[in-house]
Every structure is written in structure tokens, then in C-alpha cells.
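Input record, target 12 of the design panel.
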């Protein structure tokens, strides 16, 4: 019985000693982990990576370079036709629309009839033309006769002068009527046969397509009414709207990168050829650009476009985009402060970003950063994550 009590007492003492040893070991491990963590995160903005950690993070370093970047002015606009390629069609003498079947976008050819009109004035003009033509023929014969008689000194010089004057007046009237007939689109072929038609036709002066159509059958149109707008094929340009504050930075010959509203990338190019001289009510100034030969595919007038106007800047310090990380709304880079057998140490430094182009960003560095400082160019976010984790563990 005493033996059992002694055994139980010994077991109890052993358990107490075992528990104490376990607590001491746990405390020792925690202190070791804490010491290791403190060694990793030297401060809130510095950290050291072992060689294995360095390799796993895929860290690469480099130095700040100087490049000539291009600053960007953003603008929006539309695909439009060249101003010299748009033709407005009106009815010079007015009239009632008799036939018209053209729709916006419909292709047309030069010389094609695009509308037919009727007007009582057409009849009067043709009548006057035929009468004047007949009168000119008669006066020409009389002129020839009087000229012959004058050579024979049979008639008076005054008689020849009067006939000459009458002939010239009638020829002028006939010429004016001929111009009116041409403007109205009256058929001269029928008129030469003595036929008078109540209608006239409007013809397309270009090959292209119908841009706008403002007529319908039976409508009376005045000479000032715009019936059609026609545009030539293939002569498109980019019409942009630029804020007045940016217009002094734009010059003829500058390169434009643009894309349609449905396109993610601005892979099309154009060149500035005309800059407006007046500001609209919305404080925008028009800028017109010629399209490059390879950029017109799939474009139609009226399509929305977004563009970047590039302007060259002086040489500025740049780093790859992935060198710069964000933390709490601010931009930082990591500078390598030391390298040894124990590992690599990095310090987080705040910077300000400038122009961005392709994979490069202009950086404005603190004055404390040396010009030949070793910068982390790849793996910066891995260092930032490790630094945050180490700070949280502390």
C-alpha cells in the first residue's frame, strides 16, 4: 500500500516536471520565432530576405534610367469625311419633287439622276429659249445681209450697227437662258428637237454615297433648301475636340493614336493637319487629323473615337511600371541597401509618378536617393507583402 502511494507520488512529481519542461520549451520557441521575425523586419520600412527567399520571390534589380517619354493629351471625336469631299445638293430654281428614292448610305455614281422636279417656270424658260434661239438665227441672217450691202455701199452704216446690236443682245439672252437650263437640269437633247418638258433632273456631281436626304415625293422645295448631302468614298479623317487649355501644346504634324469606342486598344494612327482657331460654347476646339493608310479599315462617318495626342518631353528618370507599388494610397519603390551572405536588405522609399508610356513610368525621387541606387525592378509586390506580414506578426 505504501509502495502504491510512493509510486503515485513519483508519477505526480514526474508529470509536474514534464509539464514545466514543456512550458519552458514553448516559451523558448516563441522567443526564437520572435527573434527571427525581428531579424526579418528591421523597421516599418525595411526588411531582409534570405538568399532562398530572394530566389523564390524572383526579385530583379536595376537602376533609374533617363528616357524621352511622350506626354499624352486625351481627346474624343468622330470619324468624318474631308471638308472638300462633301457636296450639298439644292434645286437652283425650286420645284415639286416628282421622284426620289435615295436613302442615307446608298451608293451613287457621278452623273446619276438623284431626283426629278417639276415647275411651271421650267416651261417658261424653255419657251423663251426656243424663241430666242429662233430670233438669233433670224438676226444672224439679217446681219450677214446688211454686212454684204454695206460692203457694196447700198445701205447706211447705222442700219448695220442696229442689226449688230440686236444680234448681240439676243445672243446674250440666249446664253443666259442656256445657263438657267443647265442649272435646272432640263434636258437639252429634247429641247434641241423642239420639245418642252415640265420636269428637270438633279444629277450627282461625284461618285460616293448619300450622307443625308431631306426630301419626299410631292414636297415643294425652295432654291435655298438642302436636298442631299453627298460624300466621296474613302476620304475620311478624324475630327477631335480638344480642351482650350491643351490647344497650345498641339502642332500640325503631331502623331495621334486612336481607336473606336468599341476597341480596347488605341492601335490606329493619324496626323494633325488642321487646328481650329475658335472655341465653341463647351470650351472645345476642333482638331482635324489625316488617317494613316492602314488605319481606315472598318471606319464609317459618324463613328465615335477616343484618341491620345502625343507630345515629346525632355529626358526624365524612369522605371518599369512593376517597380512601383501602392500602399495606403501612396506610391513606393524598394531600394536595395545591402547584400551579404546572410541575405538582401531593402528599404521602402516614397516616390511621385509622372508620365506613363508603354511599360515605363516617370518617377520623381526624394533627394536622399542616390543617382546610382539599386532599385527593385521585379518582385516589388512580393517584398511589400513580406514587409506587411512581418509588421503584423510583431
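The sequence produced for target 12 reads:
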Amino acid at each position: 500500500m505504501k509502495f502504491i502511494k510512493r509510486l503515485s507520488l513519483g508519477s505526480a512529481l514526474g508529470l509536474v516536471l514534464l509539464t514545466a519542461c514543456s512550458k519552458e520549451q514553448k516559451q523558448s520557441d516563441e522567443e526564437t520565432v520572435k527573434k527571427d521575425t525581428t531579424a526579418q523586419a528591421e523597421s516599418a520600412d525595411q526588411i531582409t530576405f534570405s538568399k532562398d527567399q530572394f530566389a523564390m520571390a524572383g526579385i530583379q534589380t536595376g537602376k533609374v534610367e533617363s528616357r524621352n517619354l511622350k506626354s499624352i493629351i486625351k481627346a474624343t471625336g468622330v470619324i468624318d469625311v474631308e471638308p472638300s469631299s462633301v457636296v450639298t445638293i439644292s434645286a437652283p430654281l425650286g420645284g415639286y419633287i416628282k421622284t426620289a428614292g435615295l436613302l442615307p448610305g446608298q451608293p451613287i455614281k457621278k452623273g446619276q439622276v438623284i431626283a426629278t422636279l417639276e415647275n411651271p417656270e421650267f416651261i417658261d424658260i424653255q419657251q423663251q429659249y426656243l424663241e430666242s434661239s429662233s430670233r438669233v438665227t433670224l438676226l444672224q441672217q439679217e446681219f450677214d445681209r446688211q454686212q454684204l450691202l454695206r460692203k457694196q455701199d447700198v445701205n447706211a452704216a447705222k442700219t448695220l450697227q442696229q442689226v449688230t446690236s440686236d444680234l448681240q443682245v439676243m445672243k446674250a439672252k440666249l446664253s443666259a437662258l442656256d445657263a438657267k437650263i443647265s442649272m435646272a437640269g432640263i434636258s437639252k437633247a429634247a429641247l434641241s428637237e423642239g420639245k418642252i418638258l415640265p420636269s428637270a433632273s438633279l444629277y450627282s456631281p461625284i461618285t460616293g454615297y448619300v450622307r443625308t436626304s431631306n426630301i419626299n415625293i410631292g414636297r415643294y422645295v425652295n432654291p435655298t433648301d438642302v436636298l442631299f448631302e453627298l460624300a466621296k468614298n474613302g476620304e475620311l479623317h478624324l475630327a477631335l475636340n480638344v480642351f482650350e487649355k491643351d490647344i497650345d501644346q498641339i502642332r500640325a504634324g503631331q502623331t495621334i493614336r486612336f481607336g473606336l469606342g468599341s476597341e480596347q486598344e488605341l492601335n490606329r494612327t493619324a496626323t494633325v493637319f488642321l487646328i481650329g482657331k475658335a472655341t465653341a460654347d463647351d470650351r472645345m476646339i476642333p482638331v482635324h487629323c489625316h488617317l494613316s493608310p492602314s488605319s481606315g479599315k472598318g471606319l464609317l462617318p459618324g463613328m465615335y473615337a477616343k484618341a491620345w495626342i502625343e507630345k515629346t518631353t525632355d529626358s526624365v528618370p524612369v522605371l518599369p511600371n512593376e517597380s512601383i507599388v501602392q500602399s495606403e494610397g501612396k506610391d513606393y519603390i524598394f531600394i536595395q541597401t545591402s547584400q551579404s551572405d546572410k541575405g538582401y536588405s531593402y528599404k521602402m522609399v516614397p516616390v511621385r509618378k509622372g508620365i506613363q508610356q508603354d511599360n515605363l513610368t516617370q518617377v520623381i525621387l526624394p533627394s536622399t536617393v542616390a543617382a546610382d541606387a539599386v532599385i527593385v525592378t521585379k518582385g516589388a509586390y512580393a517584398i511589400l507583402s513580406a514587409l506587411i506580414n512581418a509588421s503584423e506578426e510583431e
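The radius of gyration is 45 Å.
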